[in-house]
Amino acid sequence: MNGIDSFMIIAIDGPSGTGKSTVAKGVAQRLGYIYFDTGAMYRCFAYKTLLEKIEPTDEAGLRRLIEQFQFDIQTDPVGEKHYLVNGLDVTNKIRVQEISNLSSQISIYPFVRQAMVKIQRRFGQQRNAVFEGRDMGTVVFPDAELKIFLTARPQVRAERRYRELLLKFPDLANTVSEEQILREIEERDCKDSTRTVSPLRQAKEAILIDTSDCNADEVVQRILELHAHALQKKGRMKPAYRCVYWTVRTILKLFYRLRIYGISHFRPGSAIIAANHASFFDPPVISVSCPEEVHFLAREPLFRVPILGRVIRILNSHPVSRDASDAHTFRVLIQLLQEGKKVILFPEGSRTLDGGLQPLEKGLSFLVYKARCAILPVYVDGTFRAWKRGAPFPKLWGRIRCVFGSPIEWEEFEGLDKREAMERITQRTEQSILALKDWLEKGAQGEPP
Ligand code: DC
User: Fold this and answer.
1) From atom 2 of ligand 1, which residue's Cα is the shortest distance away?
2) Does the CB atom of residue 13 touch ligand 1 within 6 A?
3) How many domains are there within the chain?
């Protein structure tokens, strides 16, 4: 079940040579989304026309062919995608220039596009996904939560295509020139953007990124940040939650210079946000650092602390009794996770006495094992100094930092027996939290691990 109503779609459009495939693959990989190259579908159909000797101008022939067209994608053990046309693997055959030109010609027909769009939408209903193509944001997924339009100077695009082509087919070095590719790119751009049905164009809400002077990693990073914001919008916080969220966030920013790192690691769906526990401040700090509504458990005494008690109630906290192994607590947590929600958990069980990470208790691994959900590791720094255990009141200022790490997927533990899985879950979570601490202490360079 998905946490936020439906699956998240990232639509990436743009002409060829703008880095669409590399970027879309990178984004999908970082988010654990499926990646769908819609150009490959048009290429597959173009290949089929070549195989059956149907001219791209023969509309009746193409109509007949589209009826018989069967398209499938298979992923091999190293994660590479294979494209199948009526059972035949055509992955390498569809990347040649002849097919590029042919696919642009056959994609002008409304009946071809309708057949493709139907397949694309069917894939989009199944999981969080990154779709790349020409009309993803305008036609196929007009409601996509995040739309990106990539561009680059034609010369840069031709250079990229040339390098890519020689890498795949070194023999072409003597027969193909960069100028020729540039001409073909310009011709194809013209065809793709002037056709009457679903022409290549930027959707109104799409964010334009010019990739001429940046590398793929930089573009991926930018899209991940935009994705985190899109998630925030899609999450639609309840009005009271939103109000407390922004108030607490502003206070923490003003008085404690709150800094948040790694929100690009967020994606829809259930997860346990597993954090070190140093202070009463931790739950509200982590809650308002997340780009969507999250839930957490809090010991009953916390609900009696003036102001904080009310604040955490609105921020989706659920009271637990002193007994941490309470079966009722587990039921509440499992239910929240099954509903696709995210839950903050402090696997150490209690607040640290000296600021260091204590051994993790079994509760976290048991829950992950039962709910089969992902873990989002978090390290919170500065809350111990701001309000340590035993201090009756918090300090009024300080510096707090909250770092989200890469998700630990349930699939890592799938197939292990219960005891082994639980041990591995605990170990991996502890290592991840410590790696985030280390990253912060070494100067917080780049993305958190
Ligand atoms: O992205 P690509 O170069 O592999 O796409 C090949 C052709 O397919 C492109 O010239 C136009 C067509 N196409 C399309 O019309 N709509 C899409 N969504 C994707 C590709």
Assistant:
1) 39
2) no
3) 2
| 168 and 293 fall within a common domain | no
Whole-number Å distance between alpha carbons of 175 and 182: 14
- 284 belongs to a structural domain: yes
Q: What is the tens place of the pLDDT at every residue in 89-123?
A: 999 999 888 998 999 999 999 999 999 999 899 88
In terms of domains, do 185 and 262 share one?
no
Residue 195 Cβ contacting ligand 1 at under 6 Å: no
Query: Domain limits at 346?
Result: 239-441
CB of 38 closer than 6 A to ligand 1?
yes
Is residue 39 in contact with ligand 1, taking CB distance under 6 Å? yes
Give per-residue pLDDT as tens, 129-160.
Answer: 999 999 999 999 998 999 999 999 999 999 98
Answer whether 0.85 is exceeded by the pTM. Answer: no
C-alpha to C-alpha distance for 307 and 166, rounded to whole angstroms: 65
Q: Which residues contact 191 (CB under 8 A, 6 or more apart)?
A: 104, 105, 108
Quote the ligand 1 centre to 212 CA distance (angstroms): 20
Q: Is the CB of 138 under 6 A from ligand 1?
A: no
H helix intervals, 266-362 = 282-289, 308-314, 327-338
